[in-house]
Specification:
InterPro entries: OapB-like. It holds the Pfam family OapB. This is DUF2073 domain-containing protein. By secondary structure, this protein is of the alpha+beta class. It has a single domain, classed as 2-Layer Sandwich (Methyltransferase, Cobalt-precorrin-4 Transmethylase, Domain 2), CATH 3.30.950. Helix content is 27%, strand content 26%. The protein is built from four helices and six strands, in the order βααβαβαβββ. The protein has a four-stranded mixed beta sheet. A two-stranded antiparallel sheet has the order 5-6. Helix 2 packs across helix 3. The longest helix is centred in the middle third of the chain and has 14 residues. It is globular.
Length: 133
């Protein structure tokens, strides 16, 4: 993944870098490789968007690792929002609880907690305010 420019550099472009990561790139990566790639981007102040999202276990592990890396002066944590994948089979909550098809994430947006604020989320839209702090 390309390195983000230093936001304190006066010659750096003004804005927020967004890393759009394809499912193809994530295929074959171990869970910790995915988590490290995501957190390295977020530590750099980037917004990371995953085309195919993470499994529930990978998302839990991401949160665990993030909590261990939080420090008051350097890293405030992450914001994470995921679209559920609509499946034509039984994708109702009851259907999933009773052992139906597991809903896979379709798209996941991850960013620094101090820079991204979710304004609205529903089945078709994630609306977020991103600031450069």
């Amino acid at each position: 993944m390309p390195k983000a420019t230093n936001p304190d550099d006066p010659d750096a472009p003004d804005g927020v870098q967004i890393d759009l990561i394809s499912g193809e790139r994530m295929d074959g990566m171990a869970t910790m490789e995915k988590i490290r790639m995501i957190l390295d981007g977020v530590h750099d102040g980037n917004i990371v968007i995953l085309e195919e999202g993470l499994t529930p276990d990978e998302e839990s592990r991401l949160i665990e690792v993030t909590m261990a890396e939080i420090s008051p002066d350097e890293f405030n944590g992450i914001e994470i929002e995921t679209y559920p994948k609509s499946d034509t089979r039984d994708s109702s909550l009851l259907g999933r609880i009773m052992g139906g098809e597991e809903a896979e994430a379709k798209l996941t947006v991850i960013g620094p907690a101090n820079q991204i604020e979710t304004l609205h989320k529903d089945e078709t839209l994630i609306s977020a305010l991103v600031s450069r702090n």
